[in-house]
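A quick aside before the break. I want you to see a complete sequence-to-structure record at least once, exactly as it would be stored in a machine-readable document. Don't worry about memorizing anything.
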Amino acid sequence: MPKRKDISSILIIGAGPIIIGQACEFDYSGAQACKALKEEGFRVILVNSNPATIMTDPLMADATYIEPIHWKSVEKIIEKEKPDAILPTMGGQTALNTALTLDKEGVLKRHDVVLIGANRTAIDKAEDRQLFDETMKAINLETPASGIAHSMQDALKVQKRIGFPCIIRPSFTMGGTGGGIAYNISEFKSICEKGMELSPTNELLIDESLIGWKEFEMEVVRDCEDNCIIVCSIENLDPMGIHTGDSTTIAPAQTLTDKEYQLMRNASFKILREIGVDTGGSNVQFAVNPEDGKMVVIEMNPRVSRSSALASKATGFPIAKVAALLSVGYTLDELKNDITGGLTPASFEPSIDYIVTKIPKFAFEKFPQASPKLTTQMKSVGEVMSMGSNFQESFQKALCSMEEDLNGLNSLFEKSTFPHDDEITSELTIPGPKRIFYVADAIRKGWSIEKIYFLTKIDYWFLDQIKELIDIEEKLYNSNIEELDKDYLQEIKEKGFSDSRIAEMIGVPEDELRDHRKKLNVYPIYRRVDTCAAEFETSTCYMYSSYGGKCESNPTTKKKILVIGSGPNRIGQGIEFDYCCVHASLAMQEEGYESIMVNCNPETVSTDYDVSNRLYFEPITSEKILDIIDIENPEGVIIQFGGQTPLKLADVLSDKGVNILGTNVDAIDRSEDRERFQELVNKLNLKQPTNGTAKNQREALKKAEKIGFPIVVRPSYVLGGRAMQLVNNIKELEKYLNEAVEVSNSKPILLDSYLTDAIEVDVDVVSDGINIEIGGILQHIEQAGIHSGDSACSLPPYSLSKKVQNKMKEQAIDIANELKIIGLMNIQFAIKNDEVYIIEVNPRASRTVPFISKAIGTSLAKVASKAMIGKSLKDQQFSSELPNGLSFVKEAVMPFDKFPHVDPILGPEMKSTGEVMGIGPNFGEAYAKAQKGANKSLRRWGVVFISVKSSDKKYLDEFVPEIINAGFKIVATLGTANYINRLGYQVETVNKVSEGRPHIVDSLLNNEIDLVINTTEGSRSIKDSASIRQSALRNKIFCTTTMFGAFAIIDALKSKEENWTFDTLQEINT
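That is the input. The structure line, written in C-alpha cells, reads:
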C-alpha cells in the first residue's frame, strides 16, 4: 500500500527533557522519524522542549518549536501550523499522554487533526491496566492475578485478595514511576499514595508478585496489512522484581527453547492485533516461571520505547524510521532495509550471529539519602551496550564501557578481604547496582552455583558462564607473561578479557601485554552488523570487534577523522556531549573527510548507523581506540567533544603519537592542574577566589583556616561537580574529609573561597587558533555556589552591565590566546560588586553548546570541528549574533521525584538529568516557559511561604513589595516574619517544624501554600528544613532555594500565559 495522499503535514511530539525513565533514546527515534518523513515529502512540524537534542536542529524538521510539551502550548502550535496529523509514538510517555489529553480536550476534533501510528483505543487498551487485563483474557493469554484501584479503599481490598508481596504499578506513567514492591501494609499504603498522585488517571494496577520469574521482551513491528515481524528478543539477566531499564539485558534471548520462543512470538503478534496497534513498533514483556515454564504477559508499550532503541542498535534494524513510514501507509514489504543496501525488504525478520549485552548506569553516589536498592521503579540514568561473538565477550566488553574504572568483572574487594557471608547474602537477595559483582565474589569465595541461584534466581546458564570467567582468572593470577602463548591468549581474548585486566592479573604494565599480544600476532577482527547473520553482503560500515575469524572492516584509503564519543549518559555528562560528537562527525563529512565514530551508548544519535561513514560500537578504552586507529589510520582524532570520557585518553594517545586535533593536550593539563592554572591566572593578571590544594587532611584544615569560611571543596579532575561541597566551618570540613573523599598525593583536594552573593556566568569561546569569537555569555539565575549544570541561565545576560560583559570577553580572549585554543573552550566567571573572578577553564565542549547553538542558529560544535582541520572562522562566516529582541532561558530538570528521601536543595554537586529551553520576547516569558517545560507548576497568586537565611534578608526589601503586587499573601517563620514586619508589610507567622504544631509542613500538606521561597546554609539548618522542600516537591508546589531564583519568579509572574508567543527556530533565525 503506497503512502497516504490525504496527509501532507505531520506534527511530531518529542519527549521533552531527559529524565530517569525517558532518556536520549527518544532523541534517536524522533530524529529518525523527522528525517524519514521529510524525505518522503511531508511537511514536518516538531515540538520539543529539549535544546540538547539533534531532533531540535533546525534542519531536521520544516518547523521546529522549542516549547513546553503541554497540551495548551501544543494547541497554540496546532492553531498556527494546522497539521493534518499527529505522530505521538516517538516521544515516549510524554508525547503519548499529551496526545491523549489533546484528544480528551477536543483539540484534535476542533482542528480536524488525526492521530497516526497509534489510535486512542489502542493506547487506552495498552496503557489502561484494567482494559489491558480484559483484552489479554479475551485472547486466552494469562496475566498476573491483579486488581485495579482508584482509591486507597479499592487498593486495600485488592491487596487482601492478592496477599503479600505485591507489585503496584500506576497507569500512564513511564519507567515504573510511582510503582514498587510492597512486603507489608505500611509500604503498601505509601507506594499506593505516591502512585495515585503520579498517575494522570489516578489508577493503580496491583499485581501478584512474580519475583524470581524470568523476564523477556519482544520488539514487534506491525503494518496496516497485518504483516508482523519480531525485530529482536531480549532476556533480562535479572529476574522479575527489577525494572527492565535497571536490569542487565541480553539479546537475543539465551535461555528460551525454540518452542518457548515460538509461543512468545505468536503471543506477541496476537497481542498487537487485539490491542489494535495498526502500524509501528511495540514492546511486549513476558514473565516465565522457571519451575514449570508457565508464561504470563506483563505489559505492552504501543510506541517506540527504550527497548526499541536497544533492539535497533543491537540488530541494525531502524525501528523508529520504519515505524514512522508505516504510520503514513507504507507496508513492511514495500520498505527496503538500508543496512543490506536494499537487498532485503523490511519484512525480512532480522537474525543476528552475535550476542548483545546492555548494562545500566546508576548515580546513587549523587543521592546519598536515597536507597540504592533496585525495584520496579527505574532509577538508572544511562546505559552501555556491547557486542561480542559470545556472551562472555559481550558481557566483559560492556563492563569495560561503564566508565567506572572497571576493566572486566573486577572484584569489589582486595583478594584477601572478602566481605562477611551475611553481606554477600544480603546483596544477592536484595538487589543493588553492584549485585553482579557480588555474584562473582561469591563464586571467588567458593559458594556453589546452586546456592547463588537460590538467592538470586539468575538463570544457571548465566551463572555457569560467569563461573568459567572466574576459573580463567584464577589460572591467570598464577601465570606470568612468558606462559601466555598464542593459543591461550587468543582463547582468553575471545572470552572478552581486556588487555588491562590480563596485565593486572599477571602483574605487568598494560603496554607490555599489548606488545606481547601483537608480537604473537593476536589481533582483533571487526565484524559487521548486517541484520541477516551474513546471509547478504552489507554496504553499511557498522562494526564491533571480536577475536578469531575473518575481519570484515575493509577500511578505505580515504582521508578520515576519528570522533570519540561520550560513553554512557550520566549526571554531569549527558546528551549535550553526544550532540557535539554528532556535529563533529557531520562537519567532517561536509569537508570531504570520512568520519569514524566510536561509542558504546545505544540510546544516542551518534550510534545511529547513518550518522557517520563508519561506526564502531566499542568501549571507549585506550586498548579499543588504539586497535581502531591501527586498522583505520585516521589523519586525526577529535577528543574535545565527548566530555571527560575521551579526555582521559589524551595522554595515552599523545604518547603513542596519535594526532589529536584542536587544542594541545598540554593546554588541558594547564587548565586542570591547580598549580599550573594559578601560574596562568597570575601571568594574565586575572582575579581568582583565594584557593589552595591539599594532599592530606592536616594540610586541608590548615589551608581552610587561611582561606576563611565558607569554602567550596572538591576532588581535582572531576566532571559534574562530583563530591563537591560547600562547607561553612571546620567541623563540616572534617566530616567531608572523613566521609566524602580520600585525600592523597595522587588525589589532592581543591579548596576555594566561596564568593557569597556572586553572579556566576558561563562564557563559551570558539577559536581557529588566530580568530577568537565569543559564542555566548550565559548569566546564571541562581547565585554562584550552585553547580552550573543545575542552575537556570539566561542568554543574553538579563542584568549584567555591558562594561562587565566586555571585561569578561577580553579575559576570555586573553585565556584563549594563552592556551592556544583551537576549537571550543568554556570559562566560568563569578561577578561580585562588578569585579570579575575566574572560577575555572575547560578547553573542551561544555554542556551549554547545544543551547547556545539553538539560540544563535549556528552549530558551535560544527564550527569548532571545521576550525580544527584548518578552516578559519572567517572562511566559515561565523557569527554569534543573537536574534533581535529575544531572550533564551535554560532550566535544569531534576530527578528528585524518583528519590523521595532526598532533599531537593541545589548545591555545588550536579544532580540534574536534563534541561529545557524557554524562548520569549523578554526574560520573564522565557523563564516562565522554561519552568513549564521543566514540568514545574508556577501558581499565579495565593500564599507564599518565605524563610530565608540571615545574609539573604537584605533582598526582602525589594522582593516583598514585588510579590505582594503579584497577588500573594505572605506567611513566614519567626525571624523572617519579624524582618518583613519591620519593613511595614503584613505577614502571618508559622512554626518551623522544630517549633511545634501546626507547622509549615502541615500547611504545605493541607495545600494552604502556593509558592515556597526557602534559602538556608550550614548542614544543621539544611537538615532541619529539608522536610519543607520535600513536602513542596511532593505536593507540586513551586519551590526555589535561592533569592536570585525568587526574583526570576517575579519576572515570570509578569508574563501572562495567554499572551505567550510561539515562533519556530526557522523564523527566529532567518
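Two observations worth writing down. The radius of gyration is 28 Å. Residues 127 and 172 are 6 Å apart (CA to CA). We'll return to this after the break.
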